[in-house]
Design goal:
Arc Repressor Mutant, subunit A, D-Maltodextrin-Binding Protein, domain 2, five-stranded mixed β-sheet, alpha/beta, 12 helices
């Protein structure tokens, strides 16, 4: 029943069977089967079906409203059960957005330092995926852009300020370590993240505020896919600075900070306010507020900037 409710709520969010299935990481037939099973269990039709999704029946509307409460109650139940577990069995589930993939291990290390026997699960998705998972108690916490209007019901712990770099084929780079303007970047064929991703919307807004129309040659859903195309010489890419220090296979590319303006966006940890009141939540809150957490993330950011500058200086070659 729980999976059927999850499918129904995702269908309400997307109004499209295929899109709902994709967001849940399942096939469209599987989603339809889960909803049909829920209808059989409740013995009533929930979805108005045609060639496409046409809406919910009155019973379907009622189930979607109550379904959120059911999922929250299940989250509370899981939290209660987890509090009864020995520390050795405690699972910490964190949601991250793709651009934080390379800093997430820092958080994992901090949690393991505090609870050496705990196990960790990392789930990757967009901002909506992470926020929804936290609200439905499927995720303990998330690492995301700190966008206040999307996170009003969450406690936010700032970690570092994300900045942006232009990554180019070395032969087109000019002086590798010299900063480059957003205006110049707009004149190059660019690889950018997909339009539905928040990072892309933030980059688009910079260009829009400057009155610029960039030439977008390639779009992708991961930093690695963008950099692979840069290596081929097809384009340059605009990527978050924190994402480039840990990636293999990009040595020899030019990595230059973007300026005029220097754009910064806050990245941090988030956790549901009501979860902070639980024993495990209080434990995490104490950890997240400790001076060492922000210092460690800030140190990583500085090391990333220094290492990339060194590795792109003329005459140096990364291994």
């Amino acid at each position: 029943m729980i999976r059927g409710i999850e499918c129904l709520l995702m269908l309400e969010e997307t109004h499209h069977f295929g899109a709902a299935a994709k967001k849940l990481g399942m096939s469209q037939p599987s989603l339809s089967q889960c909803i049909a099973a829920l209808e059989r269990e409740l013995d009533i039709r929930l979805v108005v079906r045609g060639r496409n999704f046409e809406g919910f029946t009155p019973a379907g509307e009622a189930v979607t409203q109550q379904g959120r409460r059911v999922l929250r109650a299940m989250g509370d139940l899981r939290e209660m059960v987890d509090r009864c577990r020995p520390d050795a069995r405690r699972r910490f589930v964190i949601g991250i957005i793709p651009i934080t993939t390379f800093v997430a291990p820092l958080l994992s290390a901090l949690v393991i330092e505090q609870s050496p026997a705990a196990s960790l699960v990392v789930e990757v998705g967009d901002m909506h995926f992470v926020a929804r998972g936290i609200r439905e108690r499927k995720l303990d916490a998330g690492i995301v852009y700190l966008v206040p209007e999307m996170l009003r019901d969450m406690v936010q712990y700032a970690l570092y300020e994300e900045t942006y770099c232009l990554v180019s084929p070395a032969r087109n780079a000019g002086t590798p370590s010299r900063p480059v303007s957003w205006a110049h970047a707009a004149t190059l064929p660019l690889a950018l993240l997909s339009p539905e991703m928040l990072n892309r919307r933030l980059v688009d807004k910079v260009f829009e505020d400057l009155g610029l129309k960039p030439t977008v040659r390639l779009e992708g859903d991961s930093i690695l896919s963008l950099l692979t195309h840069v290596e081929s010489g097809l384009c340059s890419a605009i990527v978050p600075r924190s994402s480039i220090s840990s990636l293999p296979g990009i040595w020899g590319l030019s990595v230059r900070p973007l300026v005029d303006p220097v754009v910064k966006h806050s990245v941090g940890l988030v956790m549901l306010k009501e979860v902070v009141a639980t024993p495990w939540g209080q434990q995490l809150d104490t950890l997240f507020r400790s001076p060492g957490v922000e210092a460690r993330f800030r140190q990583f950011s500085h090391i990333a900037a220094r290492d990339r500058q060194q590795d792109t200086e003329p005459g140096r070659q990364g291994g």
